[in-house]
Amino acid sequence: MSTLTKLKVKLFADGADLAGIAEMASNPMIGGFTTNPTLMRKAGITDYKAFALKVLEIVPTLPVAFEVFADDFPTMEKQAKEIASWGKNVNVKIPVTNTKGEFCGPLVKTLSDAGVNVNVTAVMTLDQVRKIVENLNINSPAIVSIFAGRIADTGVDPVPLMAEAVQILKSKPKAELIWASPRELLNIFQAHQVGCHIITATNDILKKLTLVDKNLDAYSLETVEMFYRDAQAAGFDIQI
User: Fold this and answer.
1) Which residue among 15, 16, 148, 238 has the highest number of C-beta atoms inside a 10 angstrom radius?
2) Does residue 237 sit within a domain?
3) Torsion angle of alpha carbons 141, 144, 149, 152, nearest 10°?
4) 178, 209, 196, 186: which is closest to 28 by C-alpha?
5) Is residue 228 part of a domain?
6) Nearest-CA neighbor of 33 among 162, 165, 209, 206?
């Protein structure tokens, strides 16, 4: 675990399964939690507030992010203030635009000036990052969540973009950058190397932390053994 102890990036767990959240809450390496309406729908959540309050019972002190789901900014503001009232450790996720492509900047400014811990989400360009930072109150904690994994899905290396975003956020010292939607464990170390403050990952990725520093010769042999066991279990036979 020596490599893991050197990590400066904070590890957040991303999900909406209460059992999975409880499992990660017991892991001292996990520093916070995020979720979103899509994850909640997949988990079968129908009562948003009841779910959120259960999460906050499980995670009473670590940061937890819940997202607004309205599409007009006045309703987003009302939802954001309600969500923020559920706990001092709550971060309120605001999408970088609504579905019409209208930038959320004025809403972010209103909430940030009011002391709401905003998490601006679904960010994918440096231009968006710059405009978000302009609207953050220098005295209010905030998070900018760049979907680096989705950027990578388009064939673009997100590492240089994330490194530049770290520099942009320096003008607001209380703002933190999240590497969101990682696709593999390696992304945690990439986030660390560029100085990203947080990476949020699903439990299936976080569980791979046990593989860090694993001997690759031993891992190779285990893989060969797996192939052999599965061939035997399948009853494969080639007449020679």
Assistant:
1) 148
2) no
3) -140
4) 209
5) no
6) 206
pLDDT digits (tens, 9 = 90+) for 223-234: 999 999 999 999
Under 8 Å between Cβ of 116 and 80: yes
Q: Which residues contact 173 (CB under 8 A, 6 or more apart)?
A: 138
Whole-angstrom distance, CA of residue 203 vs CA of residue 19? 11
Cβ atoms 167, 144 nearer than 8 A: no
The total number of structural domains that make up the chain: 1
- Reported as a single tens digit per residue, the pLDDT across 51-78 is 999 999 999 999 999 999 999 999 999 9
Within a domain: residue 229? no
Residue 178 lies in a domain: yes
Q: Which residues pair with 120 in a beta bridge?
A: 94, 144
Report the predicted TM-score, pTM, of the whole model to 2 decimal places.
Answer: 0.94
Tokens of 196: 């990203």
Domain with residue 185: its CATH number is 3.20.20.70
Which residues have a Cβ under 8 Å from the Cβ of 80 and sit 6 or more positions away? 68, 92, 94, 107, 111, 116, 118
pLDDT at 2: 67
Domain extent at residue 96: 2-212
